[in-house]
Design goal:
Elements lengths: L2 H11 L5 E5 L5 H9 L4 E4 L2 H10 L5 E4 L8 H4 L5 E5 L2 H13 L4 E7 L12 H8 L2 H4 L4 E8 L7 H22 L8 E6 L3 H6 L4 E4 L1 H4 L6
Amino acid sequence: MDIAENINQLQQELAAGVRMVAVSKTKPNEDILDAYQAGQRIFGENKVQELSRKADELPKDIEWHFIGHLQTNKVKYIAPFVSLLHGVDSLKLLKVINKEGIKNNRTINCLLQFHIAEEETKFGLDKEEAVEIFESDDFAELTHVKVCGVMGMATYTEDENQIRKEFRNLKNIFEELKNDYFATDDSFCEISMGMSGDYNIAMEEGSTMIRVGSLIFGERNYH
């Protein structure tokens, strides 16, 4: 498994304006360093404790993204350094992130997670819930949170048409929100969608950020 080669291969396939998050959850530091030496700088983790440890031990110019479902009581551990939170799906969570942003004197970047898949297990908002958040007085008072875009996961299926339809739906949600609430805000620009199995479709449908794990590091190590 040549991690550097995999990184280079994937970088060549990226559409213009698309960034790749290397999903490094469960992977040892040496694997991450291999990817880092190959030029990869954005890494995604889904466990707060593991993310904090790796951020402590690995090069300081790594951009750490939290890609899991974040519990409110864990925000404080990653608030000082995290670059982007991918899976924010409630006003309650946004308020906690804002509070930790104030404590750390920094604005924390977030993506709102939308439920676009048919599977019931996936977290996420629908368009109406997002509108409710953006139109609330509480949201207007969040000074240390920046919503930079949207994120979603397609159904795990072989049916490419369905995957494409779900990604297209997320792109439409992004465009409506951009139009209605962020028309003058250049930082609202991210559509995080696409993983190892479907990133090509995601890029065709307008993704700006893909999350790739197994194609870089091989199959997952389960502890």
